[in-house]
Amino acid sequence: MNIHFICSLNARSQSAFECLVKAYGQSELKNADCVVVLSGDGTVLRAFHETTELGIPIYGMNRGGIGFLTNAYQEDNLIKRIEKAFPLKIHPIRIIAEGCDGKVFNVIAVNELYLLRQTHQSAKIKVSVDGIERISELICDGIIAATATGSTAYNYSANGPIIPVGSKLMALTPISSFRPRGWRGALLSSDAVIDFEVINHSERPVCAVADYVEFRDVSKVKVYEEKNIMLTLLFDEGNQLEKKIIDEQFAT
Q1: Checking CA distances to 192, which of 18, 87, 92, 148 falls within 20 to 30 Å?
Q2: What is the pTM for the complete model shown?
Q3: Are residues 98 and 116 in the same domain?
Q4: What is the mean pLDDT of residues 14-43?
Q5: Which CATH number do you get for residue 46?
Q6: For 109-168, what is each residue's pLDDT tens digit?
Q7: Going by DSSP bridges, is the β-strand pair 93-99/104-109 parallel, antiparallel, or unpaired?
Q8: Catalytic residue among 33, 41, 130, 195
């Protein structure tokens, strides 16, 4: 098996990288059968962004923080672990963001897209779903569109729902909403197309963040599931993401 290892800058990740490359070699990315990420969730997301067009499965081993998208770190029997791992197939979301200067950004995200105010002033955002205006003016710090994979991350911290994997849902969750005061978000079909329009963007600037990629001063953002792209994340038996998400819902 040809393995391409990816690590982050922290000492634990670097040490694991040196050890495993020595033991298993370092394949060129274009020739790899699997990408092994030696870090945390953030580096797993970066690996997806870097390998999207190649369609290579990703197997993470936690050398970072929480490591929700990773497996336990172990130096021995790596190839057998990868061969026996359970694949999780993921459609990312597509984000098309238009800047106030007219420039258009087109990217994917595995976890979420969020809009966030850039100054002390609240953002004002119009929200439409499938071409129907649902909120004419959301006054808030921001808003999140999260996949099932990302629902336990920023979305959950903002009091959004945890979504079971395979449910074909997306979460739409406000960040510190002021008006409408009673709105707490929505669960949408993964077939939905969401449009955000920043109101008075020159005085109330807003940035858009797709996973970790940030675009400043956006005026419009469109979000939908990218069904033409399939990503694969590998998990050890007993460590599948489905189980982790269920456990997270009962965490105390």
Answers
A1: 87
A2: 0.90
A3: yes
A4: 95
A5: 3.40.50.10330
A6: 999 999 999 999 999 999 999 999 999 999 999 999 999 999 999 999 999 999 998 899
A7: antiparallel
A8: 41
Which residue has tokens 């959004």?
160
CA dihedral 73, 79, 81, 85 (to 10 degrees): 120
Q: Which domain holds residue 32?
A: 3-91+230-249
Task: Indicate left, alpha or beta for 29 from its phi (over 0: left) and psi (-120 to 50: alpha).
Answer: alpha
- The token duo for 207 is 């940035």
Residues 12 and 76 in one domain: yes
Same-domain status, 17 and 62: yes
Report how many domains make up the chain: 2
DSSP letters spanning 97-117 = EEETTS-EEEEEESSEEEEEE
201 and 114 share one domain: yes
| Percent of the chain's residues with pLDDT above 90 | 88
CA dist list (Å): 172 to 22, 88, 145, 175, 245: 45, 23, 5, 10, 18
